[in-house]
Write a structure and sequence with these properties.
The chain is mainly beta. The protein is built from seven helices and 54 strands. It folds into seven domains: 171 residues, Jelly Rolls (Sandwich); 77 residues, Immunoglobulin-like (Sandwich); 85 residues, Immunoglobulin-like; 87 residues, Immunoglobulin-like; 66 residues, no CATH class; 65 residues, no CATH class; 103 residues, Sandwich (Immunoglobulin-like), CATH 2.60.40.
């Protein structure tokens, strides 16, 4: 409920209509937003000591008490001026004590409430003018104040807030003078009306009270009484005026249209028409449909034979769970909102249809994976064929292991989506959802086909100089592509290229062709062809050349040490040029060549001892001492070879010819035994010939050449001495 109180002040308005309570239980409301003046109390007993504790604080006496309470309308600081005058206008002493804050409601008194701990102000001076300040007052709190007339002179007391409008100032609520209420906001059901009444909690003269009403802010011209009949939603506000109340005291009430009920529409009901009509319908199956997830106690549902009866709520169909009808009838539902008391109606139709006829589905066939004699089938794939065009919402399919089970609705396959079985017969029951006795049956076969099992052949690895013959297989055939595609290969077919071979087998059944397939790869590894250099004959050493294919090894089959190219070979050696492809896990394809290196060594000879001869006449008519002589060079040859056999010794006049073994400077064998130094002019100093020594049969020109010096000595000439006679 919302309450609005408007106070219009034009200048300073003095109100002198407030009464006072001379006892705490009769304390009166007080509004200090304006200058309030009221008659003081005279000739009255002092305040009751039981109404407050601590002897009324600072007050030495409490004569002629006037009790009031006020409520905080706006939080903040409130300052009040209090004054007392005689009827002739002469100021007279006024005293007070105030307590608070309190939660209420008034009257608030007694030692538990009015004591030193709740005291907020007190004055017992002889002044006619007092002040009271309350700090941090909070909206809605109540305060109690007691005012006394010490002089017992008739007059008036004024009570006014002095800091109105100041920053941080609070205010008192004037609504407590004439509490007005239209009651709580409420919901108005469609098509109904209700009276709202302005209630004033005050003893007012009704003849002095005026009323005016508005709907959604618009004045209702004919509404001027304490009540108003409303028949539609809206915000209704009343304003009253009475001399004993603040001007234009107002309250409002909001009339709401009810929210649409959170319910669902009922569904048509169809039953199996077994036998002659009428048929029995359970209308209450729609109750949970309508209520949905709502609390059924908050939305009770009743059933009627007509719309009029549903609106009147009478007569109900009873019992609603066994309603006899031939079908094709409209049923009306009344749904009430327990909270608002409103209701709404809905309708649905009941039908009586002939019993369902179960269709005959086709057989299910599957491959027996693993050939364990069982497979898992989803029987629900047969639902559509069983329904055979009949409404799945009105009929239920169930699957059974026996014909008797299908007839009696027993032996039900509980998980038809995952039914594990071998070859068998499955029985089907189609039942009307509204009548378990409304059904028909059919059946189909489950056929389990053994799955062919193909032998898995390991991958094959061969060298390029070999072929692989496909072996015989007990199950399946060879193909060049998966799933029996490509070319079919017969056992014994030679395979000489790298390729994948597929072994495929099938059952040739429908709708599922049971197959098995394995594959293996024939990998043809290229066999290397190593270099095959000719046998080598070399003198002293041989530098291994680089190879295009292969490496040099000291032992066959790529074992021993690897000899790098450019290695110098200095003795007879047999090396093996070896290369391989593949690895030990698959196949090793290799090639090897035996490379023989023959190293001839130069003969080891002694230095030639010079040949010496005298220059004599050699029957060549050379003159004596012409530096010529005849030498047998072979003696030098025998000397340097130490007469070892197996050497061929030749003699040269030209060193390079001797080194090369050419004919340049070659001395024939005939000349060598009688070499005339004339053929090679010599000087008295040494001038060498050259002896070439090579092993007999050597083809590498691996010879040793040593110089041979020929020395011709001058023959002494004996002078002719004549005879001395």
């Amino acid at each position: 409920m919302k309450k609005y109180y408007f106070l219009f002040l034009l200048g300073l308005i003095t109100v002198s209509v407030f009464g006072q309570g001379s006892t705490a239980p009769s304390m009166q409301p007080l509004c200090a937003s304006i200058n309030i003046t009221f008659d003081n109390t005279t000739n009255s007993p002092p305040a009751d000591p039981a109404s407050a504790a601590d002897s009324y604080g600072c007050l030495g006496s409490e004569p002629n008490p006037a009790w009031f309470y006020f409520q905080i309308g706006t939080s903040g600081t409130l300052s009040f001026d209090i004054a007392q005058y005689t009827n002739g206008g002469t100021p007279i002493d006024v005293d007070y004590i105030a307590w608070g804050p309190f939660a209420g409601p008034p009257p608030i008194y007694g030692p538990a409430n009015l004591n030193n701990s709740t005291e907020v102000g007190c004055s017992y001076s002889g002044s006619a003018f007092e002040s009271l300040t309350i700090n941090n007052a909070q909206v809605g709190q109540y305060y109690v104040i007691l005012l006394t007339n010490f002089s017992n002179q008739a007059g008036q007391i004024s009570f006014e807030q002095s800091n109105t409008g100041a920053p941080g100032a609070g205010s008192t609520s004037c609504a407590i003078l004439c509490p007005l209420t239209l009651g709580d906001d409420f919901i108005l059901c469609p098509g109904t009306s209700v009276d709202i009444v302005a209630l004033i909690d005050a003893d007012l003269d009704e003849e002095d009270t005026t009323y005016s009403w508005t709907q959604d802010g618009e004045t209702l011209p004919d509404a001027d009484g304490p009540s108003l009949t409303v028949s539609e939603p809206g915000v209704y506000e009343v304003t009253i005026n009475n001399p004993q109340c603040m001007e234009d005291t107002t309250d409002s009430v909001t009339v709401f249209a009810p929210d649409e009920m959170p319910i669902n529409d009922p569904e048509d009901i169809t039953i199996c028409a077994v036998g002659a009509s009428p048929y029995i319908f359970d209308l209450t199956v729609n109750t949970p449909v309508i209520q949905g997830n709502q609390d059924p106690e908050l939305y009770p549902v009743t059933y009627y034979g007509s719309e009029e009866a549903a609106n009147e709520g009478f007569p109900q169909i009873f019992p609603a769970n066994a309603y006899p009808s031939p079908g094709d009838e409209v049923i009306w539902v009344r749904i009430e909102d327990y909270i608002t008391g409103c209701y709404t109606t809905r309708s649905f139709t009941i039908f009586a249809n002939p019993a369902p006829q179960a269709g005959t589905p086709g057989d299910l066939q599957a491959c027996d994976a693993g050939n364990d004699g069982s497979e898992t089938f989803d029987l629900t794939v047969q639902d559509e064929a069983v329904y055979n065009g009949q409404d799945p919402e009105q009929n239920l399919v169930s699957y059974h292991t026996t014909q008797i089970g299908a007839t009696q609705n027993t032996s039900i396959i509980q998980t038809p989506e995952t039914f594990t079985t071998g070859s068998t017969t499955v029985y089907v029951r189609l039942t009307n959802v509204n009548d378990v006795d409304c059904y028909s049956t059919s059946s189909f076969q489950i056929i389990l086909t053994p799955e062919p099992v193909v032998v898995d052949i390991a991958d094959v690895f061969i060298c390029s100089d070999e072929t692989y013959l496909l072996p015989e297989v007990a199950v399946g055939n060879y193909f060049t592509e998966a799933n029996g595609e490509g070319d079919q290969l017969d056992p014994g077919t030679p395979i000489s290229e790298t390729q994948v071979i597929y072994i495929f087998a099938e059952s040739n059944t429908t709708p599922n062709n049971c197959t098995d397939e394995e594959s293996f790869t024939v990998t043809v590894n290229e066999k290397p062809e190593v270099d095959e250099p000719a046998e080598v004959f070399a003198c002293e050493s041989y530098i291994l050349p680089a190879l295009n294919v292969g490496q040099y090894f000291t032992v066959q089959n790529g074992t021993g040490s690897i000899i790098a190219p450019n290695t110098e070979i200095t003795q007879d050696t047999t090396l093996y040029i070896y290369a391989e492809t593949g690895d030990a896990n698959t196949v090793i394809c290799s090639d090897e060549y035996t490379f023989v290196i023959n190293i001839d060594n130069r003969p080891v000879v002694s230095p030639a001892i010079p040949l010496e001869a005298c220059d004599v006449l050699i029957e060549d008519n050379n003159a004596p001492n012409d530096f010529s002589a005849v030498f047998n060079l072979t003696t030098a040859g025998n000397q340097v070879t130490n007469n070892q056999p197996g050497y061929t010794v030749t003699y040269y006049t030209d060193e390079q010819g001797a080194i090369d073994g050419s004919n340049v400077g070659l001395i024939s064998a005939a000349e060598a035994v009688a070499y005339n130094s004339e053929s090679t002019p010599v000087t008295p100093v040494e001038e060498p010939l050259y002896i070439r020594v090579v092993a007999t049969g050597n083809t590498t020109n691996c010879a040793t050449v040593v110089p041979l010096q020929l020395i011709v000595h001058e023959t002494p000439v004996i002078p002719v001495i004549e005879d001395y006679v």
